[in-house]
Amino acid sequence: MSQASVNAKPVAVVIDDDQDTVDLLEIVLTQAGFAVITASNGPEGIALALEHRPVLATIDVTMPRMNGLEVTRRIRHQAADTYIVIISSRSQEHDVLAGFDAGADDYVPKPIRPRELQARLAAVARRPVEAVAGAAPVAWAPAEEDVERSEYLRNVAAGQSLGYAETEVHGAGEGKDGRYGMLELGMRFVGSWIEFSGLRINPSRELLVIDDRIVDVSPEDFKLIETMLYAGTLTLTARQLALRYRGESELAPSTRRDEDLVWFNHTLPRLLRQIGDDAPVPRWFFIFDGTLKLVRPPRDA
Predict the structure, then answer these.
(1) Which domains does the chain have, with CATH numbers?
(2) 87-101: pLDDT as tens digits
(3) Contact assessment for residue 77 and residue 107, using Cβ atoms and an 8 Å cutoff
(4) What is the pTM of this model?
């Protein structure tokens, strides 16, 4: 990050050794109006805080070299106006009290609720530093992680079968679904994220990010995007996509083929408009005559 960009916005320092958390906080804070600087350990974070005098610092409790409570004490002592938020997987009452005793202004348990945190910190970015430093702490409830979907993503990333019968997979064209088809399109599995040409999803948090901006979609639409990404290089018919989305097979479908086609023709165009992929040349998803295919990015993309 350039010094000019740091000077143009209120600065936030993220001090955390977990890359998934750093990525999420960087997205949330950038969208909330901050210039974000990151550190993976306490001493580095303290040095950045002293150099940039940030409006906000988020600090993980458990880190190598120096724990987050000590980092909080030192930043509070040397940068008294910085609004400090502890981010921690420890959420027992004594842990929270220890954070406040160390000098924190707020305490956010992991896993993080991105939209709530974004709204809270956007307010911090707009307020004078004096008002921020004196704000009353807010109680936070940890978000529930979808453990089953986290495990499913790990299995997909490891190359395990998606669990669809051959007759359901290979009816509309050649291609590969799951890990191998997704990698062939240039998708990346990064921690709990799937990345695809500027579109990122975190299935365990139902979080959609497009070009580093959080996009709010319904749980049903998020599940559909996730299902479509798992198609990889395979072309899916409306029927195949509908069955995958519902977790069904042709042995016990809950709808007729014509009903699935009506659903496909109504839902897919609406969703693509919502995420900005309805241009004549689509960016991620191509629909034609009742079929879906993911767009292969140019080689130099």
Answers:
(1) 3-133 (3.40.50.2300), 147-294 (1.10.10.10)
(2) 887 767 677 778 887
(3) no
(4) 0.61
